[in-house]
Write a structure and sequence with these properties.
Strand order of the largest sheet: 3-2-1-4-5-6
CATH superfamily of the largest domain: HAD superfamily/HAD-like
Strand content: 5-15%
Order of helices and strands: EHHHHHEHEHEHEHEH
CATH architecture of the largest domain: 3-Layer(aba) Sandwich
Oligomer: single chain
Number of strands: 6
CATH class of the largest domain: Alpha Beta
């Protein structure tokens, strides 16, 4: 069963599923997590607002959340919100504290994005017939990925899981998607990314990948302007074959 990997960003090897064919013949489908697998951004916003008010003395608006926090590593967002106030070690500690607060308070209530579980099941059926591999690539921590994949019973669907612990720069930097393609032994040009945020769309396009975005967190027009090849309200009606036809 695949695990949530936690090797450092400097590692030269990214472990994923065993390659069954040459990379050029394979296709990869790379899932962001928050807003793609799980409807968690409202919960993250509420957690940030309560945590920041109590712990940091800061009022976070929805505009601030989607501009400076959503889709990014917490440490980067905190450094922008509090320039020069915290050391890297303090930023990491605050980030861990916030995510533990989020998991405890909101984890039991999380629900999947409509249609995503059906899409994963469809892709798994296709993968039984042809070389298609799935990965998760999220800016969130490994603990959040384990929570979501375990809650929805989809851990075994993914040959690799990449988290924010494995990169030094978060989206729109393309590194995490390039690492995911490497883990699957798939060429970047043979990958379709599923995203919900402009920063994630930009990361996918900078990695030379196709991108289908869902407007669960940001307006469709903004996602298109960021470079998404296709935008849907959610995954209802989206099939695995349609994703592979984008390649």
């Amino acid at each position: 069963m695949p695990t949530v990997h936690s090797q450092p960003a400097s590692s030269q090897h990214v472990h994923g599923g065993t390659a069954r064919t040459e990379a050029g013949a394979k296709a990869g489908v790379l899932f962001d997590m928050d807003g793609v697998l799980v409807l968690s951004n409202p919960a993250h916003l509420a957690a940030w607002q309560e945590f920041a008010r109590q712990r940091l003395g800061l009022e976070i608006t929805a505009e601030m959340f989607y501009r400076s926090i959503s889709g990014r590593k917490n440490e980067e967002a905190l450094a922008e919100l509090f320039p020069g106030k915290f050391t890297p070690e303090q930023l990491a500690a605050i980030s861990r504290e916030k995510e533990a607060f989020y998991r405890e308070r909101y984890g039991p209530t999380l629900q999947p994005v409509p249609g995503v579980l059906e899409l994963i099941a469809d892709l798994r059926r296709i993968a039984a017939q042809r070389p298609v591999a799935l990965a998760v690539a999220t800016s969130g921590p490994p603990e959040n990925a384990r929570l979501v994949l375990g809650r929805f019973g989809i851990t075994s669907a993914f040959s690799a899981v990449l988290t924010g612990s494995q990169v030094t720069k978060s989206k729109p930097d393309p590194t995490i998607y390039l690492l995911a393609a490497q883990a699957l032994n798939v060429l970047p040009q043979r990958c379709v990314v599923l995203e919900d945020a402009t920063a994630g769309v930009q990361a996918a396009k900078r990695a030379s990948m196709r991108c289908l975005a869902v407007a669960t967190s940001e307006p469709a027009q903004r996602l298109l302007q960021a470079g998404a090849d296709r935008v849907e309200p959610d995954f209802r009606g989206v099939t695995g074959q349609q994703l592979l036809q984008m390649l």
